[in-house]
Amino acid sequence: MLPGKASVVEAADRIAPYIHRTPVLTCSTINRMFGGEIFFKCENFQKAGAFKSRGATNAVFQLSDTEIQRGVATHSSGNHAGALALAASRRGIKANIVMPENSSRIKILAVESYGGLITRCKPTLAAREETLKEVISKTGAVEIHPYNDLRIIAGQATAAKEMIEEVNDLDLIMAPVGGGGLLSGTALSARYFGKHIRVIAAEPAGADDAFRSFTSGTFIPSVDPRTIADGLRTSLGSLTFPIIMENVDDIVTVSEEGIIEAMRLIWERMKIIVEPSSAVPLAAIIENKLNISGKRTGIILSGGNVDLENLPFKTTV
Amino acid sequence: MLPGKASVVEAADRIAPYIHRTPVLTCSTINRMFGGEIFFKCENFQKAGAFKSRGATNAVFQLSDTEIQRGVATHSSGNHAGALALAASRRGIKANIVMPENSSRIKILAVESYGGLITRCKPTLAAREETLKEVISKTGAVEIHPYNDLRIIAGQATAAKEMIEEVNDLDLIMAPVGGGGLLSGTALSARYFGKHIRVIAAEPAGADDAFRSFTSGTFIPSVDPRTIADGLRTSLGSLTFPIIMENVDDIVTVSEEGIIEAMRLIWERMKIIVEPSSAVPLAAIIENKLNISGKRTGIILSGGNVDLENLPFKTTV
């Protein structure tokens, strides 16, 4: 089961009035360093600061007036929370967001600023699911899962679709992988809209459940993930895993030092703010996990939501 | 004495192969906050990370082969140093850069990475000028002053020229003021290429020599400037001061807190990296030093060179 080409085209049309067609940037210094051309799709400039606005907007605007009259709901400590709250406010409905108590101040402020209704819970998956169930039974809201939802996957696919339309003859596209919504969508768009584009995912070694699931062919959940890339700590979903098995060419893993080095390179050389998860594909290039020499590589920079009071840059990395 | 319209047009053509035509960005949140439309000309994305590449490139490529055969020279602890080194390397000549011993690691690394030849000196204006004199007498290099030079002013003017060509009906343009090269060029381009655009400069209150010179009509040097905006600590020049007196509508001053708040707003909302000097015009809007409600305002973001290991963001500003 996967979103067809028509679903992705429809998603792109549906969300166009509400999202940014983000720019694709290049950096001559970075190209020189790696001997290839890298095209960065800047979803850090997206509404609510991440690609998540694409899927959330597609889901919220695909629902009928009847279906959606009691609002939407999700549990999230990350970018999906803000994206869903913003999409709901654009549709004029309520967004109930279950957030663990240890969510970052920045993420909570973002949800509040978009008018989301926050319910706090203990920071365990069980507490999050239980609290969400209670919120839904009380409000009648529709659950919008952050990635294991075909409408979300079709929405996330529109980022790669735009890049493929804008940049000719890409040899490969890279995306980070957490729950797999962005990666699934990216792989589908590469197939639907590209010509022989290889799709390579990058994942922190400290949260390598997708890598292990992919190489073993068996779903392996994320247990005790340890990575600065806070968007990539989740497990794959029952919908995203088979799409990835079928449509992704490879998954590579990177070190925490590599992620910070890549993030610093993007900040210092491109003068743009990306969050650690965004830097994971470039980290794979830095760490020679794949060779992009002489190739045209597209990288999806997934988001730019960081806490400026808590940055990972230490003296002389 | 000032660069005529033809000089600015020639400068734009001369430097086009070597610099970026930088994007103009907007931010719906910031527009909503201030009730007007603000257009940010992103010179933080410029070659060598600042508008300084425009003037330096114009000066270096305007000199004849004979004039320039022994290279160029300047003293600078800031963005002019890197910009001149890069421009010289593009022309295939040597750049001798006198840098005070207390220059930041980042700025020294930038000059070195562009192949500049660094001579260190004590961190006083007298030592800088004396050392530069020695370097020039030894090498025969041509001095390229960071702002008090008509070729530099014409080069810096091209940033506002591009913005005026791209954004219709600007009501005002804002730029920060340090030595006045950017401000002079901006004011001239507003006059040459715009229609009734007001030009407003912003300056840190802790380095308000341009403000005091402008309001008194008498040149007042910068003595013991105290500001985080390291690009704005210098005095006006004998060429820039009269251009500013004649062509700038107003100069306003801002607090250090305002600069950091504006910088944070740009980083958090626009996801781009700007240095403190770039944030000074927006700080003036935040601090109600002028009212841009209902207006179309252009702001030149002067540069993006910051030390990521030494950022001014503290908990809950």
Question: Would you write up a description of this structure?
Answer:
The structure is a homodimer of 317-residue chains. Chain A has 13 helices and 10 strands. In chain A, the strands form 2 sheets. The first copy, chain A, has a 6-stranded mixed β-sheet, sandwiched between helices. A 4-stranded parallel β-sheet of chain A has the order 5-4-3-6, sandwiched between helices. Helices cover 45% and strands 15% of the residues of chain A. In chain A, strand 7, helix 9 and strand 8 form a beta-alpha-beta unit. Chain A is α/β, with parallel strands linked by helices. The mean pLDDT of chain A is 96. The A-B interface holds A 23, 44-45, 49, 264, 267-268, 270-274, 304, 308-309, 311, 313-315 and B 23, 44-45, 49, 264, 267-268, 270-274, 304, 308-309, 311, 313-315.
Question: Which characteristics define this entry?
Answer:
homodimer, 317 residues, alpha/beta, Rossmann fold, 2 domains, four-stranded parallel sheet, 13 helices, ATP binding (chains A, B), TrpB-like_PALP (chains A, B), magnesium ion binding (chains A, B)
The outline of chain A comes out as globular
The SS-based structural class of chain A is: alpha/beta
CATH structural class of the largest domain in chain A: Alpha Beta
Could you describe the largest sheet of chain A, including whether it forms a barrel? 6 strands, mixed
| H/E topology pattern of chain A | HEHEHHEHEHEHEHEHEHHEHHE
Organism (chains A, B): Lentimicrobium saccharophilum
Protein name (chains A, B): Threonine dehydratase
Pfam families (chains A, B): PALP
Keywords (chains A, B): Lyase, Pyridoxal phosphate
